[in-house]
């Protein structure tokens, strides 16, 4: 039986106002990685709030199955309204006051979806409790020289609830999906985020090959990239994708651009990775691309500078810190709304014994080619 949530429960929950750290507001790559961490923090804060408000909710464990982050500060309506020392800046500054708003938009038997929105907070509202609606009347007016709060990022994440198991023969720990603790339909509120790229990238079927313009790079993981279970942390996926994206831009692999940049020579499918790790070309890699082993022909136009507007990461399996991690990437040939383009990523783990690559993460970046200024990457 579904019970109604108490009026004291903040189903749209705002974390206390905080300051953005330096690393959270510097380059676009660091900003994206930090947002993945901030989403984890916002989700856990909302769950704690619900647990305190509804004591009968049982303890549970969960894993993230997808995360979709949108950089709203790229939209003109969300630019700073007060002139900045750096006119091209759209990200909030280091030390900027901000708040995170969280809501549950769907509850399934074993999973749920949350959405988060991140707003700047004017200095005059530093001590405001955004969960207390009775305070709204106190903040109807702001000092004339103060910039009003603005949206700078939003995100949607899917979470699956799990129960840990242990194999008695090997001692190996693993988990299975289990019923979630949140079954109260009154905790669900309407969705407020629209994504340009839709819900997520489609997976290739067994008989579908990657397109001819796909390129493959090995990626070196470090021990600092893993959590206590030896799996790569969620925020590191954003780093992997962004590193490969920047590498593809620099090397000319995203051959679908409209600028004047052109590749000087044909680019192979296999390449030196973004951190310098290198693999030799294999017949498997060439056959997978139709036999030639060339991802981009000579004199092809390519994207040189770009801004990421959305980043989607889907987790199909756990990625472990070990050799054999490779990333396939390619520009999708279709454009979205005539302005945005799409880059697809497949993060793969390679079996050391057989050499077979298994896709562990399907990812996508929606981006806009920047022909005016150097990309903030």
Can you offer a commentary on this structure?
By secondary structure, the protein is an alpha+beta fold. 13% of the residues lie in helices and 28% in strands. A hairpin with a 6-residue loop joins strand 13 and strand 14 (357-369).
Summing up helix and strand content along with how strands pair, one would put the structural category as alpha+beta
Annotated CATH homologous superfamily of the largest domain: Hotdog Thioesterase
Question: In CATH's first tier, which class of the largest domain applies?
Answer: Alpha Beta
User: What's the pLDDT, averaged over the residues?
Assistant: 84
How many independent structural domains? 2
Give me the Rg, rounded. 22 Å
User: How many helices?
Assistant: 3
Task: Note the gap between the termini.
Answer: 50 Å
The CATH architecture name of the largest domain reads Roll
Query: Remind me, CATH topology of the largest domain?
Result: Thiol Ester Dehydrase, Chain A
Bin the helical content: 10-25%
| Secondary structure tally: strands | 14
What's the helix-strand series? EEHEEEEEEHEHEEEEE
Low-confidence stretches: 281-291, 373-377
Basic shape: globular
Q: How does the major sheet shape up?
A: 12 strands, antiparallel
**Beta fraction of the residues?**
25-35%
InterPro entries: HotDog_dom_sf
Region (Disordered): 75-98
């Amino acid at each position: 039986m579904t019970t109604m949530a108490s009026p004291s429960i903040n189903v749209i929950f705002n974390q206390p106002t905080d300051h953005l750290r330096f690393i959270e507001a510097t380059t676009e790559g660091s900003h994206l990685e930090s947002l993945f961490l901030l989403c984890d923090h916002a989700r856990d804060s909302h769950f704690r709030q619900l647990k305190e408000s509804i004591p009968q909710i049982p303890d549970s464990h969960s894993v993230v199955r997808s995360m979709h982050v949108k950089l709203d500060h790229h939209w003109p309506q969300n630019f700073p309204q007060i002139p900045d020392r750096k006119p091209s800046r759209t990200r909030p500054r280091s030390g900027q006051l901000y708040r995170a708003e969280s809501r549950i938009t769907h509850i399934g038997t074993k999973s749920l979806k949350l959405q988060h929105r991140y707003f700047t907070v004017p200095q005059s509202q530093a001590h405001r409790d955004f969960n207390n609606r009775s305070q709204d009347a106190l903040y109807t007016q702001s000092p004339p020289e103060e910039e009003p709060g603005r949206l700078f990022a939003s995100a949607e994440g899917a979470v699956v609830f799990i129960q840990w198991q242990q194999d008695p023969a090997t001692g190996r720990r693993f988990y299975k999906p289990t019923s979630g603790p949140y079954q109260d339909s009154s905790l669900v509120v309407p969705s407020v985020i629209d994504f340009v790229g839709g819900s997520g990238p489609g997976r290739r079927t067994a008989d579908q090959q990657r397109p001819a313009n796909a390129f493959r790079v090995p990626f070196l993981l470090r021990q600092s990239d893993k959590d206590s279970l030896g799996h790569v942390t969620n925020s590191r996926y954003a780093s992997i994708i962004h590193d490969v994206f920047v590498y593809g831009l620099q090397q000319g692999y995203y051959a679908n651009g409209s600028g004047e940049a052109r590749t000087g020579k044909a680019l192979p499918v296999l390449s030196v990775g973004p951190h310098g790790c290198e693999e030799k070309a294999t017949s498997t890699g060439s056959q997978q691309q139709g036999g030639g082993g060339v991802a981009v022909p000579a004199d092809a136009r390519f994207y040189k500078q770009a801004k990421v507007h959305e980043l989607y990461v889907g987790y199909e399996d756990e990625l472990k810190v070990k050799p054999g991690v490779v990333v396939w990437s390619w520009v999708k040939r279709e454009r979205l709304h005539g302005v945005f383009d799409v880059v697809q990523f497949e993060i793969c783990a390679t079996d050391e014994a057989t050499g077979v690559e298994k896709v562990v993460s399907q990812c996508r970046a929606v981006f806009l080619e920047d022909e005016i200024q150097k990309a903030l990457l």
